[in-house]
Structures are given as C-alpha cells and as structure tokens.
Design brief:
With 305 residues, this protein is of the alpha/beta class. The protein is built from seven helices and 15 strands.
Length: 305
C-alpha cells in the first residue's frame, strides 16, 4: 500500500516521503480500515510517540496521521461492535502507525460508525477537533449554561468546534485571534471577539472558563482572567501560570466512541459545522504537512477519490 513514512527525527518534514509499505494485519480487538480520508496535527513530528513505542523503542519507519474515515475491511480475533463493510471514523493510537496510508490497523474501540449521509472528508475532520472541544469543555472544564467562555484561536479547527459546542450549551462565548479571523470566529458562534494584536485581552473581565490552544504569554495572561472557581483548560502542554482561585488543567485528547457519536449527530442535524480548509491527495500529503503559508481550518488528506 501507499503511505507517508518518516524515518529520521532530525530531518523533520524533510524526511517525510511517500512509500510502499506492507498492508497492516488486524491484531486481537483490531480492525483494518480502508482509509478514504485522513487528518493530522502539524506538530506530530515533535511527539515522542511518532518515533518510539511505549517502551521507548524505536518504531521507525512510522506512518503519521491519527484521524480517519473509511470502511472496515477485516476484523481481528475477538473484535466486536463493528462489521466488515461498515463506514467508520475515529482516532488512532498515538504509538501505532497512523492514517496517512491506504489502510490502517486500529483498535475497534477507537472507532465509531460514520452515517451514510456524512462525507468521508467531513468524518476525518472531526475526531481530534471535536473530541478535544468536547472533553475540554464538558469533562475538564465542567461547563454550565450561563457561564462565560474565552476561546483562544476561535477561528481554528479546534477553536471553532469549541465555540459552537459552548454556544449550544448556553454559554456566553468570547473568541480571540488575529484581526483577519474576526468574521470567521463570529460566524462559528463567538458573540464577542478580541483581536490579540490590537485589543487589550484583560478588558474582557472575569471569565468562568478559558480554553487555550495558544499557550505562551497569552496563556500566562489568561490565568489572571479566571474568576473564583473557574477553570483554565490548555491543550498546549503544562500550564505556566495558574489562576489565583481556580483550576488549571492540561490534557491530551482520548478517543471515545460515545462522544464521537454525539459529535457526528450534531453535524448531521446542523448544530455543528466542521472547519475544513485545504483538501489534498496522499501524493501531495508531504507538501500539505509542511505548508509555505498560514492555512485556515483543518487540512484533510483525501486518500481515495
């Protein structure tokens, strides 16, 4: 099968290439999925899990990409809950070969059914952005109706999901970003917008929940915005500054079949829109992984037409 592989951590994206790899086999509780569309995170080559397994043993050549939508082609021993020919989408294990390939072996529990009226491209754009938003807001942030939510990067793939889910949950949503992002942030559900280059962040006042996808100085300043009992949720690593009288939580997204089902149902009934930017082919995936200009939204690799 064709796949994108990496072998040299020092080379970074310069070491990525399209290559022939053996088709994967389904282990116990696995399925093999014929990948139709795949998503990735641009920082994957900086993750230890891209290069080593859980025992820190080298696992190159490895295949990046961890989001997918496709069709089940084989079941491993003991696998239940899915069937050959079923349309699925989900989030692959960080420590296993990923989804920038024609086929992937993946634990069945990491997949959910993809309804026939949801395109594979849309399905592949949902797992990381959707699950990150859901878990950050409801599991870690414990968002309640009537609370205020400040979302950094609110026009991005994750931020736009956070804004829509928070707005649906009855929160007052404030987005941040660059001036050029204002219209898109408001279109995806933000009721106010802070231009981080020209506005004063602290003018937003006290906030119940900050969802930080930026970190750095913005993350540090955000800690001072949390009102008593509030929460700062970060997906960019350990929080550098903590609220005086609130919680600071950083987390790594996990696959969850029930949550994937909630997310895709919202897409089906129009309550949730995914923010897809660029769609490329597997042949062009190396260039898509290393763009020469800032791209808006989620980049998807369409593996099959």
């Amino acid at each position: 099968m064709k796949a994108i592989v990496v072998t040299d951590q020092a080379a970074g994206t310069a070491g990525m290439k399209l290559a022939e790899r053996p088709e994967p086999q389904a282990a116990i509780n696995d399925v093999v999925v014929e990948v139709h569309a795949s998503g990735f995170v641009p920082t994957e080559l900086a993750w230890p899990s891209t290069w080593a397994d859980r025992l820190d043993r080298d696992r190159t050549p490895s295949i990046p990409g961890h989001e997918l939508a496709g069709v089940v082609t084989a079941l491993g021993y003991g696998t239940t809950g899915l069937s050959v020919g079923q349309r699925v989408f989900g989030l692959a294990d960080w420590y296993r070969d990923g989804t920038l390939a024609e086929y992937v072996a993946i634990e069945a529990r990491n997949l959910a059914a993809l309804p026939g009226d949801v395109d594979f491209t849309v399905g592949a754009s949902l797992p990381i952005s959707g699950l990150t938003a859901w878990q950050g807001l409801f599991e870690h942030g414990r968002l309640q109706a009537g609370q205020s939510v400040l979302i950094h990067g609110s026009a991005g793939a994750v931020g736009s999901m956070v804004a829509q889910l928070a707005r649906e949950a009855g929160a007052h949503v404030i987005g941040t970003g660059r001036a050029a992002d204002r219209r898109m942030a408001l279109d995806f559900g933000a009721q106010e917008f802070v231009d981080l280059d020209n506005d004063v962040l602290e003018d937003v006042g006290a906030i119940d929940l900050v969802f930080d996808v930026i970190g750095g100085d913005i993350g540090k300043r955000s800690a001072g915005l949390i009102r008593a009992g509030g929460t700062l949720v970060s997906i960019v690593g350990p929080v550098e500054a903590r609220p005086a009288d609130g919680l600071a939580i950083d987390f790594v997204v996990e696959s969850d079949r029930a949550q994937l089902g909630e997310i895709v149902q919202r897409v089906r009934d129009g309550r949730l829109r995914t923010h897809i930017g660029t769609v490329s082919t597997l042949d062009d995936a190396v260039a898509a992984f290393n763009p020469t200009e800032r791209r808006s939204g989620k980049t998807i690799i369409r593996v099959r037409p």
